Amino acid sequence: MTGPLLHRLIRLLLRPVVHTSLRAGVLLQEVVQLLKEEYIEVAETELERIDEKRNVSRLSVMTGVHRADVRRIFKERAPAVGEEPISLLGKVIDRWTNEKRYQTKTGKPKTLTRVEFSELVSSISTTINPGTVFFEMSRNGAITETAQGIKLVRGTRALGAFPDKAYEMLARDIETLVKTVEDNVLQQTVDPSLPSHAHYRTEYDNIFVEDLPEIREWIVERSREFHREVRAKLASHDGDYAENVGKTEESGARVVVTLFSHTEEKTTKKQ
Question: What's the pTM?
Answer without folding.
Answer: 0.64
